[in-house]
Amino acid sequence: MKLILLALLIAVASAASSLSHKQIRRMNEQVRTLDNRMDFLRNIAKNRPGAKKVLDADTLDGRMDFLRNIAKNRPAGKKVLDADGLDAVSCPNCVEFTEVEIQETLEAHNSARAAVNITVPLTWDNDIATFAANYANQCIGTNILAHNPNRKMSDGRSLGENIYASSGLQNGARAVSSWVNEKSNYDYNSNSCAAGKMCGHYTQVVWAKTIKVGCVRVKCNNIKNKFQVLCDYFPPGNVSTNKVKQKPY
Fold first, then answer.
1. pLDDT tens readout for residues 76-92
2. Which range is the signal sequence, renumbered to this chain (predicted)?
């Protein structure tokens, strides 16, 4: 038994030889953190009353696979997952969202939606997050990241988009908070923004038909407000029917 254990230890040490002790320790800590967070979230999903449930256990399991892959395969937040959720796509300008930040970003969206009685919560979409990262990584813009002019994915899905910029590092929840603050600029009866004010970011957040979101954070040194948070949404909000702008909910 001791010989078998020794052989296993040698094999593990050989496989990990290309990584520093600090990298290995960080990966292990990330995986443990994700496992603990997963237990907490699964208990919430299983025990909350139906009307209050935000994520079910199956959804959490799927997100957990995604997050565990990030923790095990992503050095220093420089990669995002591709559409398969297996291989990695280089994103040198990405500033990694932690698993907790992803959850907080979702909760910020869904809290705003619940406030206007939207019962269908947004869920995280890995493919959309990767699509957002592939564009945001280009750092196109001057004061703020420019909107992607081609928000159509390879699978045919068209997306809505919100962008938040800051001179300092911010998380996704802070970005959502700034968009939701536009609520005071929006008049539901006229379905319009106050004169000279913005409200389109808010109406996208609370667009009832939107069910998926994926976000990315990048650091663009060439842009004045260098930290950017970009969220893409499916289906897109702020759309019109027969040239008449639809209400968000």
1. 444 444 433 323 457 99
2. 1-15
